[in-house]
Amino acid sequence: MACLDRYIGYYHPYAASHDELDADLALQEEVRNVARPVVNAVRERRTGNLSQPDAT
User: Fold this and answer.
1) Distance (Å, rounded) from C-alpha 7 to C-alpha 2?
2) How far apart, in Å, are the Cα atoms of 33 and each of 10, 12, 37, 46, 48?
3) Does 21 fall in a domain?
4) pLDDT tens, 12-48?
5) pLDDT band at 2 (very low <50, low <70, confident <90, very high)
6) How many CB atoms lie within 10 A of CB 43?
7) How many domains does one find in the chain?
8) Which of 17, 27, 33, 38 could staple 9 via S-S, CB 3.0–4.6 A?
9) Has residue 3 been placed in a domain?
10) What is the rounded CA–CA span in Å between residue 13 and residue 8?
11) What angle do CA 1, 38, 28 make, to 5 degrees?
């Protein structure tokens, strides 16, 4: 299962959070790491072959 929970610019105005997100390269990679299994699951689901990710 893919899950990510983070606060971006929690103590700053909402508009500033976008700048903080753009500067946080480690968080961007974390988001990519979560997105990859989601993309794979969507592909599998579309072909009717959705597998249990943690089966092995």
Assistant:
1) 17
2) 22, 26, 8, 21, 24
3) yes
4) 787 777 888 888 899 899 889 888 888 988 999 899 9
5) low
6) 11
7) 1
8) 17
9) no
10) 10
11) 95
